[in-house]
Amino acid sequence: MAQEAPAEEKLLHVSVSPHLRDTVSVPKIMRSVILALTPALIWAVYIFGLRALWLVLVGMMSAVLTEAICQKIMGRPITVSDGSAVVTGMLLVYCLPPGVPFWMPMVGSAFAIAIGKQAFGGLGHNPLNPALLGRAFLLASWPLHMTTDWRAPAMGTMSGIDAVTNATPLAVLKEAHKVLADPVSTTEQVVQAREAVAQLSSSYGNLFFGNVGGSLGETSALLLLVGGLYLMFKRYIGWKIPLTFLGIVMILTSAFGGADGLFTGDALFHLLSGGLILGAFFMATDMVTTPVTFRGRLIFGAGCGVITSVIRLVGGYPEGVCYSILLMNAFTPLIDRWTRPKRLGEKGLRQE
Amino acid sequence: MFAKKTFPGGSHPPTNKRRTQASMIQDMPLPQRVVIPLHQHTGAPAQPIVAVGDEVKAGQKIGEAQGYVSVPVHASISGKVTAIEPHLHPLGGQLPAVIIEGDGRDTWLEQPGEARQTSQSDSKAMVEAIREAGIVGLGGAAFPTHVKLSPPEGKSIDTFILNGAECEPYLTADHRLMVENTEEIVAGAKIILNILNCHRGIIGIEANKPDALAAMRERTRQEKELEVVALQVKYPQGAEKQLIWAITKREVPSGGLPMDIGCVVQNVGTAKAIFDAVVSGKPLVERVVSVTGPIVKEPKNLRVRIGTLFEELIQQTAGTVENPGKLIMGGPMMGLAQVSSQVPVIKGTSGVLLIPTDQAVIPEPQTCISCARCVDTCPMKLVPTELGKLVQHSLFKEAEKLGVLDCMECGTCSYICPSKINLVHLFKFAKAKILSEKRKK
Ligand code: SF4
Ligand code: SF4
Fold first, then answer.
1. pLDDT tens, A242-265?
2. Angle formed by the axes of helices B423-440 and B384-392, nearest 10°
3. Distance between the two ends of chain B, CA-based, in angstroms?
4. How far apart are CA B116 and CA B31, in angstroms?
5. Cα-to-centroid distance, B328 and ligand 2 (Å)
6. Do residues A229 and A132 share a domain?
């Protein structure tokens, strides 16, 4: 597009307006996302040990390498320096149990990038969130590793939670509710289950600060919130998706999540556990795979909230953040089409 | 902050006005030679009515308007017509121009002040005087002013808006004019109200011009029909539809005109020109131009005769610290990049902007990451990312359906895009394509 002026004219550049461009670029956004995720990583190292750091590094490196190799093979320009593969690798490992063997982040990241992103044409063309797709792939292929390789937090686990097999608080809740709902449960079992639920409810502090078991990067709601708010402040993510997502989960779990009837559920507990904050702020806000319109983003967040709640309360899995986002990703093009804003002046559109 | 009026969307490019916002308008010395294009406005070009060899005086009509949407052009200096030939034009290419070699005496056809005055009770005569003076919108669009001041039978105007937003970065010509020529601008605004038989005039000024706001407020304190409004500093606050929305909350219908909703907008510079035309009988032969940019040694606001070459304006600012990478007529958001400094100032030249090479090169576009920044900021509430993809695939019909013709090429989407996609370029292309298809039918 830039055509040069005649040679005697000191070579003036000519291009179409605007002649001014914002300094925000894709690499800059990705760097900020990495920065926003870093506090949670430091925390993971603190509670799960150096192993957490190595897992994340392996995941990132595998993602970057896979991207470079795919692009090389397909003869596309190599764009690993934009940082998007690094973010994908990082996010994937954040939703793995901290005790998984090292080959898992490697395989997961490679799948996420090769199948979830490059197969569709690279950054900007992938319909589903690659990190979540990678996680779903790992869960489907090696369910045992993905559901049992938990690690107890270094400061000791919350009482009532078996650190090795049942480490996530949500799983405990799910078990307890099953017992409470089951008519053949013995009185003793019911008492135990009630105790477990009560203990969970008194554990907001632990959940908030992150002194719990769980996936590697999801434990500390506080640090994830700090990162999320930083991205909001930079305007790289909006409030619409996180707010509607979290809001709907809280409303639905409070309404239907209790064992003793309507509005006895523990919404705060649901909010703080199961990677909801991580998902709502860092994955449901992924630019490529979420709607671009104002109303579209409200619908997307609300949809994620509904699906997450349904999975948690009715479905077979304790959490549900991952699947809800993936499902809504699939609807993104449709949502965008339905929710185009009314143009300025469209109201009084002249009849021709 | 919240009380200031504004429109939805928009962005905040650095305003970069500090270097010239306090510098008094200086009269540029008379140019030796001027190149006056016959096409300086939207609409049909003027026809020359002088011949090579003719002696002309400043203010003398040298080109006659052709049709209704057209205005005459005038000699801006006294001297001799040496050529009528195509010359490099700031809107691109070579267009016919009258070239006048000055005699250095600056003799006017009619000395300003002694000239005939137009009765301010006769709307028709005033509109005619405005047209005869060759007045067009001086904000940059250069649309003939008499057309905007002649609403068709049955359309009444209840709100007149005087545009002092000057939202383009770097430019401060309107700002200085409001501070230094407050009197004439207000008088011009009153003439416009008179012509339109309208009793509500609102002067909209962006809040980053406190001295202009104060001067205008002070001067209009006794004027019942004029009100000054501070606008939020946001681009494109001065775009017609956005300004109307900010002030009246009315939407100009897609494909329609401000008149359709009872509004007329004029730029402050145009108001001053209207005052000159109606009260002193002086045609539009000069204007204020901000000559500025990061590499300009002494940026200035200059009062320049139409037809002066950019090169001479640049010399007035002591030149540049390095060779310019880009020369722009207008501001950085909507201005036009020039191939040469041998182009003349025309009526729509609000600024001459010089940009260093490292800022001149636009980065390579990457793929769209659907970040929605363009959607959030498009002041026309379009979905630029979607439109861009449609145009890239030559789906012009679909793009038209989604409103690409409503795009005003404000540049916000290209500016804000982290992938540096040249959306405006795509939309200009699509619009030209669609309009030429329409014309064929
Ligand atoms: S250039 Fe057009 S599409 Fe882009 S922001 Fe301006 S009006 Fe919207
Ligand atoms: S700003 Fe650029 S990258 Fe973002 S959605 Fe618009 S076109 Fe795509």
1. 999 999 999 999 998 877 777 777
2. 60
3. 50
4. 27
5. 25
6. no
pLDDT value for B114: 55
Q: Is the CB of B415 under 6 A from ligand 1?
A: no
Mutate to test the interface with B, among A3, A16, A231, A232 (most CBs of B within 10 A): A16
Minimum CA–CA partner of A286 in chain B: B371
Q: How far is the CA of B408 from the centre of ligand 1 (A)?
A: 6
Does B337 sit within 8 Å of A14, measured CB to CB? yes
- Residue A108's domain comprises 26-148
Q: Which of A349, A41, A98 is nearest to A215 (CA)?
A: A98
Test B339 with A6 for CB contact under 8 angstroms.
yes
Instruction: Reply yes or no on whether the pLDDT at A94 is more than 80.
Output: yes
Report the domain count for chain A: 2
Residues A210, A86, single domain; the answer is no
The residue of A10, A22, A28 whose CB has the most chain B CBs within 10 angstroms, and thus the best one to mutate to test that interface, is A22
Residue A263 lies in a domain: yes
> Comparing A12-16, A150-154, B381-385, which segment has the lowest mean pLDDT?
A150-154
Same domain, A219 and A323: yes
Residues β-bridged to residue B286: B305
> Domain B1-27+120-361 sits in which CATH superfamily?
NADH-ubiquinone oxidoreductase 51kDa subunit (3.40.50.11540)
Q: pLDDT tens digits for B144-159?
A: 999 999 988 888 899 9
User: B401 burial class (0-12, 13-18, 19+ CB within 10 angstroms)?
Assistant: exposed
**Distance of CA B392 from the midpoint of ligand 2 (Å):** 14
Same domain, residue pair A208 and A287: yes
Question: What pLDDT, on a 0 to 100 scale, did the predictor assign at position B92?
Answer: 87
pLDDT tens digits, B314-358: 999 988 888 889 999 999 999 999 999 999 999 999 999 999 988
- pTM as predicted: 0.90
Among the candidates A103, A131, A148, a domain finishes at A148
Task: Identify whether A254 is part of a domain.
Answer: yes
